[in-house]
Each structure stands twice: as structure tokens, then as C-alpha cells.
Design a protein that fits this description.
about 325 residues; alpha/beta; 2-enoyl-CoA Hydratase, Chain A, domain 1; four-stranded mixed beta sheet; 13 strands; globular
Length: about 325
């Protein structure tokens, strides 16, 4: 296999070696047209792909760009997979793969850039570009994490990544209300580094990948711009019938809980055994013993998996698929 070989990981993921201005990197593309949903099979391939990036850092030594096949709207997870009864083993595997993939990207040595293009990005299609150090967004893209309207939360490290880039209050706002923001608001918050015309997004990411540190546009100060004050946020959340109440509390737990540390594998297994007795083997199968994991990534994944077992999740997903308003019961 030559260094120019494009790696194809099944149907959804390709890793293409790329040279730009004398530097070597990779284009990590996620594709499932027409809207690029991230189903269970796709997330499994994404996780395997991030392990390849880590193991082949010698080839992709300068940069990695995460982007998706062009689409008008980029959806997150495949919502149909969340209807009816959900196997807890499937739920844990699906969310932990996303958390573990995000953890690998966080520790990659090459510079990482995520690209958000299209007219709208929802849920998981917002989360995975945020795994990167820097994010380039198209100027007409909108961003939303609407999982709470399904009585779920972002389970692929999205809550933590927004917190790290934009502060706790912005993470709580976006992930507990499901509200939509535009690219410029995301830039003011610190979620996005650069906003450019749609057609220029990938090329701008390439230029950013090889730019000198001094030439990278300064990102907003974390937490400096908060469009909704905490008091106003509580008013928005209070008795809002369109938001899963347990999901709202789970977002607050990830953001404001005491989870600012790295977890050893043994701690992850303890948490899984506490909430999903008998399923610790999933951690053994997916995790790598010599790694430590961002606690917020793991808490978010496990809490999302727990919410998948609730009646409210069934109500929320059923209402979404039927294009109706949910009537949550808090269970």
C-alpha cells in the first residue's frame, strides 16, 4: 500500500492522503447521501477510522480535515434506529464509539480541522466536526442540537466540545433548548473559528491546516459571548412541553457536574456496571487499556444511553417520525 492510497472503510468513511503546500495530512470524509446520517454502522466505521488516523500519524503528520459529502441538510443520527425498544447493548456501543472516537481526535498530534457546510446541520453532524481543534463553517449554515426534543442528549461528546470551545453557559443553552444558531453566532460564541462562503469551506480548511500559528484567526474568548443569560435560560426551560425533562437535567449534569478529569478504563467499567449491569464487556471490546478518557465525553455517552431506555424517548421519537408534538411524561 502506497502513501497515496485512499482507505475506504466500508460504505461511509474514506481517508484520503493529502499534500498541501508541502505538508502532509489526510482528508477524513463521512458520506451517506443525500443527508449523511450517522447510523450505528457509520459510527463504527468512524471510530475505526480515528484509530487509523492515530496509528498512521507518521503519514498524516501535519493535519487531518474532517468533512462530509456535500448536502443541503446534514442530519445527525439515523432517527429510525431510535424508534421502539432499544437494545441497551446497542445503545451503549453506539454512544461509546462516538465518545471514544472524539477522545482519539482530541489527542491526535496533527492539527485537526472540522468543516461545517450545507444549509443546516443537526445533532451528530454538529458533534463530529467539533471534535477538531479548529472549525470552518459556511456562512449560510445553521447549527442545532435538538436531541432534547427527542428526550435525548448529544451522546458523541458534543456537549463537552461546545463547553470547551464556548463555555459552560453556551453549552447548556444550545444542548438543553435545541435552538438553532447561525454561523456568525457560532463564531461569536467560539464554536467556529472561520466563516466563509459555502464554496470555499474545504479549501479554507486546507489553508488553515498548514497556516503558521500566528496567522490563525483568534477564536472568541471562551464564555465571553453568551446570547441567553442563565436566568433567561431557566425561563425558557421551565415547563417547556417540547423538551424532555430528564434530558434537560442530563445536559446540566454533563455541563455543571464535577467531571473535569480523565477517566481510567476501570472507572468507565464501574459506571457501565452501575447503570447497565452485565454489559461491562462492551467497554473491554471497544476501549484501549492504555488510554485515559475525557470524563465529560463518557458521562455524556452513558447518560444518552440511559435516556434511550426511557418512555419519554419512545414518545419523542414517535412524535418526530409522525411530525407531531411530543407529550412527555418525565419517565
Amino acid at each position: 500500500m502506497t502513501s497515496n492510497t485512499i482507505l475506504t472503510l466500508g460504505r461511509y468513511v474514506t481517508i484520503q492522503p493529502k499534500e498541501h503546500h508541502g505538508k502532509k495530512g489526510a482528508l477524513f470524509r463521512i458520506a451517506d447521501p443525500p443527508s449523511n446520517p450517522i447510523g450505528a454502522d457509520a459510527m463504527a466505521q468512524i471510530y475505526e477510522g480515528t484509530k487509523i488516523l492515530r496509528d498512521k500519524c507518521g503519514e498524516y503528520k501535519d493535519f487531518v480535515i474532517f468533512y462530509s459529502m456535500p448536502a443541503k441538510a446534514h442530519v445527525g443520527a439515523n432517527i429510525k434506529e431510535f424508534a421502539g425498544e432499544i437494545d441497551p447493548e446497542w445503545a451503549l456501543r453506539h454512544t461509546l464509539e462516538g465518545a471514544f472516537a472524539a477522545n482519539i481526535v482530541k489527542k491526535l498530534k496533527p492539527r485537526t480541522i472540522g468543516v461545517m457546510d450545507g444549509a443546516g446541520r443537526y445533532g451528530g453532524s454538529v458533534e463530529w466536526p467539533l471534535w477538531a481543534q479548529y472549525v470552518v463553517a459556511a456562512n449560510d449554515v445553521t447549527i442545532s442540537l435538538p436531541e432534547v426534543t427527542l428526550a435525548l442528549i448529544p451522546g458523541w461528546a458534543g456537549i463537552a466540545r461546545i463547553e470547551y470551545k464556548a463555555g459552560k453557559d453556551n453549552a447548556a443553552y444550545l444542548c438543553s433548548t435545541g435552538e438553532t444558531i447561525d454561523a456568525e453566532t457560532a463564531r461569536k460564541m467560539g464554536i467556529v473559528n472561520i466563516v466563509v462562503p459555502q464554496k470555499d469551506a474545504l479549501n479554507t480548511a486546507l489553508d488553515l491546516a498548514v497556516a503558521d500559528e500566528k496567522d490563525i484567526p483568534a477564536v472568541a474568548t471562551v464564555g465571553e459571548y453568551v446570547p441567553v443569560a442563565i436566568a433567561d435560560l431557566e425561563t425558557k426551560l421551565k415547563d417547556n412541553p417540547l423538551l424532555g425533562p430528564r434530558a434537560v437535567e442530563a445536559v446540566k449534569n454533563v455541563v455543571y457536574g464535577k467531571h473535569d478529569f480523565e477517566m481510567a478504563l476501570s472507572y468507565i467499567k464501574t459506571l457501565v456496571d452501575e447503570h447497565f449491569p452485565g454489559f461491562g464487556h462492551i467497554v473491554d471490546e471497544l476501549a484501549e487499556p492504555d488510554q485515559k478518557y475525557d470524563a465529560k465525553y463518557i458521562i455524556g455517552a452513558i447518560d444518552c444511553s440511559r435516556l434511550m431506555q426511557t418512555e419519554d424517548r419512545k414518545i419523542g421519537v414517535d412524535a418526530f417520525l409522525k411530525k407531531q408534538k411530543p407529550a412527555f411524561i418525565g419517565q
